[in-house]
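User: Hey, quick favor. My workstation is busy. Could you predict this chain's structure for me?
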Amino acid sequence: IAASPKNQYDNLSNIGPRFNVDDAATNKLAVIYTAEAYFLRAEGAVNGWNMGGTAKSLYEQGIAASMRMWGVTNAADIAAYTNGTGTPTALTDYLNSPAVASIPVLFAADEATQREQIGTQKWLALFPDGIEAWAEVRRTGYPKLYPVANSDNPDLAPNQMIRRFTFQAGEYQTNGRAVQAALPLLNGPDKASTRVWWNQ
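Assistant: No problem, here it is.
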């Protein structure tokens, strides 16, 4: 990936060479990550289910597994991140966007913050699986994301997230009977704002 000239927002992170076109054929893409399994178990433990560990220990193991997957293997670095008490800062952007979250990484004592922490760290760990991450943010509401400033979709207000993919025109044309049978099952119109059944 060629280096680009710096801009006024140069403190952002760019995707690394692991995901460039030249390396795409040799890099494996996982179906489910070890970290994801730990975060699912941590969420289950918060729900009071027997997950074979405490929510805190499973959360911390999920963070460690995610960091190791990306090459951070130094135990002190993992511990420093896991025990971090800093909170997200606001972006430096032309909209002067405020920070949308105020949680540290260090596992909290209250359940609401624990759920947000687990959801946030799981979302980070799901990279580069954008579809799964999108499903998680729709299911849990975490992490808190910056609102869409402008929406070109007439079905979505600027502060709304796309909830589902709509049936495309070609699907109506080539598979119309099945689409017509599916439409009543949506519990709403064929719009990007209609929530899928597990996201009601």
